[in-house]
Amino acid sequence: MPLYHSLGKVPKKRHTVFPNPDGGIYYEHLMGNLGFVGLSSLLYTSKRPTRVIRTTKMMDLDWEGDPDRTLRMRHFFTHRLDTQPSPVLGRLPLLYNADVAMSLARPSADDEFFFRNCQGDEIVFVTEGTGVLESQFGEMPYRPGDYVVIPRGILYRFRLGEGPHLHFVIESAGHVRTPKRYRNEHGQLLEHSPFCERDIRKPDKLEFREEEGEFRTVVKKDNGLHEVVVDHHPWNTVGWDGYYYPWALNIEDFEPIVGRVHQPPPVHQTFEGDGYVICSFVPRLYDFHPDAIPAPYNHSNVMSDEVLYYANSEFMSRSGIEYGSITHHPDGLPHGPQPGKAEESIGKRATNELAVMVDTFRPLRVSKAILPVEDPDYGTSWLE
Fold first, then answer.
1. How far is Cα 29 from Cα 44, in angstroms, rounded to an integer?
2. Cβ atoms < 10 Å from Cβ of 229
3. Rounded to an integer, what distance in angstroms lies between the CA atom of residue 49 and that of residue 269?
């Protein structure tokens, strides 16, 4: 998100001496994406970030897909799944391809280590629970409904607050950004955007830790986990500024776009990445043409797979779903409202649905891990 932000102390000029009052200098650390031409920030730390004691390969992350590749529409009751207690190591794979991977976490304990994803940006949709995201850039509180965006390479840790906790996690091979059509040439969100810069929350508190010892970090890279032990506490940033840092947008701050007749899914778009988009379906007024059919029309997913994660149990065009359901409508099969849903929507004024949609432009694999909670009758639920 191209918004300049700064916390703590930084020198007047970049790449100049920044004296440490305890002796020596503070060390400058550039972090950014796309080489030296993407978004970046400059951090100033009391210890060099390169002080690594040892590195060890922990494990490979070989996600196993459903061996049955039969083309069909699918539905999974994902909230019935059990997960491990770690906010990052306990993630259970749901659906994935080379561009984007979705998983579910139900964390119940803080990690003792720090985590860095070096193969993807992360969007953590906080379905339940509160807490604080700690990072090299400071602390950022989060709450239910937050999209917590963590650009790749940033070292972070979830500090869990009031629970229970439930995270729908989207990992992106390309960098996450807001939709281009909602920004001007300077990156400012336009007047017709469904959210604006006032809705974006950034780290607001910088906790400096000057501690030496052995501090364990876990790095995700090349579909594996690696333990990297450093000789100092990683929260030793005295100040930073720039455009590259974790940030959050709450789904309740997404202002829906409505019209006289049904509006297509792009009006719900919230994020874009390489090979996919993310949309937010939120409570809103229905279409107000006197003859409008608020439920969506039937459509074919040509060159696109559609995934919907239902953050409550209501959705205008679906029956048989529950809180935490995930539906997957693959390219190659038309889909639309289930029998009676179009007729039922006529004359209604509003909906209270809440859902996150991920549309991918390459086919998705279904993880073998979620097959035990599949709804076997979903594919035939359109029969009268």
1. 6
2. 15
3. 37
Q: At residue 316, does pLDDT exceed 70?
A: no
Q: Which CATH number covers residue 286?
A: 2.60.120.10
How many folded domains does the chain comprise? Answer: 2
**The pTM is what?**
0.95
Structural domain includes residue 71: no
Please indicate, yes or no, if residue 16 is contained in any of the structural domains. Answer: yes
Look up the domain containing 265 and give its range. 256-375
Asked if residue 260 and residue 242 are part of one domain, the reply reads: no
Q: Which of 1-10, 139-148, 250-259 has the lowest mean pLDDT?
A: 1-10
Q: What is the mean pLDDT of residues 4-29?
A: 97
